[in-house]
Design goal:
482 residues, 6-stranded mixed β-sheet, Immunoglobulin-like, alpha/beta
């Protein structure tokens, strides 16, 4: 590692952890109030505005817990329920380390594990540090709830920005956000005020679902080729010209591509040679149009890429006809997104083998350095984990680390707000739940991204350059493994 150990040690203290509390040692009942048990709190550090959640039992009576005390600073809790107390670090709190007390009418409870408050670095780092690829991010598709008067697209984009991410993945389909618009993708981002506003936000990396269809299954017609080529060409030219001098990067892709080869989600379906050839032609038509549009707008610093998304890679490794082994080798796409649900719970070695398999089937391409397979979707939803915040953070961070240790250029959690409801119950694909609570894995992203900015800025100050991808991922792995 080329960076200094001193920088590493300084920054590691910023990475959040879920603090398990020992009820016999960490919690002191200083009065005669109702017995309260405290299991943990998360995160153990933050900046002004960070929401801290204390998990335990018997918090239900507002009169019993009326104040949060950080040393001599007293303020009201944000939310109290039977098993959780949340509070937000107020602007009056200075940088430092604090003891947490829960104060009530008759009793005080002290948590001996201390909480660290740090300054927010986003306003003091260089522009190239803000636009650095920090790899970790999330996305917004069809959010099922909201908390503001803004539409779902604007609200979730702001939430992702507030979390500290400079990566945004969305659909160029207005209906996904409850919005009305008739027109193609280029017209949408040119004319619809919400999409225009999102593209003007300070995101550096945009991932778009755009122009997805499976009409090629029965053969790719000349008219279909022209329609797809025109869409991608017009969109690429607009992005390159409109955002020139911004340095933004745009990735044009789609949802899980193997399902387009397997109609009706039928894993026993055997794709025909016609459908496989049609899919190859579809990708190549889009790629050729994109590259010609890049040539026409060669003076722009905006980069536009195409990606294919695969999702049945384990099937392909078993020899079944899938996108990875029957389409990718004959395509000329720039990147591949892996929707990782078929492999995310496998061991680290098995997960790496899946990513290696995808990369091995992707033809070489000049002008793109490093690995070209990223994790476009992964998640262990809360419902599968009995809505345990602790398990949700641990299992999702473990998947994140599998992708980091392989070297994925982007790792995108599904998603900011949940998009699935089953029998009137939220499935829990979320970082912020339907009650507005930020789950621990939100803070894993939030504090890691803030710590990453600090580290990259310190690295640049020391070495007069930005860290390489390998240097950053080495640091990120060490930080998240603590």
């Amino acid at each position: 590692m080329l960076y200094s150990r001193k920088i590493l040690l300084i920054i590691l203290i910023l990475i959040p952890s879920l603090v398990r509390c020992d009820n016999d040692v960490s919690i002191q009942n200083e009065g005669q109030g109702p017995k309260i048990s405290i299991e943990s709190f998360y995160p153990d550090s933050g900046v002004v505005g960070t929401m801290v959640t204390i998990m335990g039992d018997n918090f239900q009576n507002q009169r019993d817990i009326s104040k949060i005390v950080l040393d001599e600073n007293e303020f009201a809790p944000y939310k109290v329920s039977e098993q959780e107390i949340s509070f937000i670090i107020p602007e009056t709190i200075a940088e430092g380390t604090y003891e947490i007390k829960l104060k009530g009418e008759n009793t005080d409870f002290k948590i001996e594990e201390r909480f660290k408050v740090f300054s927010d670095v986003r306003n003091v780092v260089n522009e190239d540090v803000l636009s650095y690829n920090y790899v970790l991010g999330t996305q917004s598709f069809d959010p099922k709830y909201s908390f503001t008067q803004q539409d779902g697209l604007i609200e979730t984009a702001n939430a992702i920005l507030d979390m500290g991410s400079n990566i945004l993945k969305i659909s160029l389909n207005a209906q996904k956000y409850g919005l009305d618009f008739n027109g193609d993708a280029t017209s949408l981002i040119q004319e619809h005020p919400s999409f225009k506003r999102v593209l003007d936000m300070p995101f550096s990396y945009y991932f778009f679902w755009v122009g997805t269809h499976s009409k090629w299954r029965d053969g790719y017609t000349e008219q279909e080729r022209k329609t797809d080529s025109t869409l991608i060409s017009d969109l690429t030219i607009y992005l390159r010209e409109e955002f020139n001098q911004s340095g933004k990067q745009f990735y044009l892709g789609h949802w899980e591509g193997d399902w387009y080869l397997l109609p009706g989600y039928d894993v026993d379906h055997k794709p025909t040679d016609t459908s496989i050839q049609g899919m190859i032609q579809y990708y190549n038509a889009r790629q050729n149009a994109l590259e010609e549009a890049m040539r026409i707008t060669s003076n722009s610093d905006v980069k536009v890429y195409q990606y294919a998304e695969v999702n049945r890679v384990v099937d392909a490794m078993e020899g079944k006809k899938r996108l990875t082994n029957y389409v990718l080798p004959y395509s000329n796409v720039d990147f591949v997104s892996y929707s990782a649900y078929d492999g995310q719970m496998k061991s680290r070695e098995q997960f790496h083998a899946i990513l290696d398999f995808i990369e091995a089937h992707l033809p070489e391409k000049e002008g793109i350095e490093g690995k070209r397979v990223f994790v476009g979707e992964y998640a262990r939803p809360a419902k599968l984990l009995s809505f345990s915040k602790f398990e949700h953070e641990l299992e999702n961070r473990d998947i994140m680390l599998k992708a980091i240790t392989w070297g994925a250029p982007f790792i995108l959690y599904w998603e900011m707000y949940n998009n699935e409801v089953d029998n009137n119950e939220h499935t829990g694909f979320w970082l912020v739940d339907h009650t507005g609570v930020k789950w621990p894995f939100y803070y894993t992203h939030n504090m890691t991204l803030l710590a990453s900015q600090r580290w990259v800025q310190k690295f640049k100050n020391e070495f007069q350059r930005l860290p390489s991808r390998t240097e950053y991922l080495d640091w990120l792995q060490n930080a998240l493994s603590q």
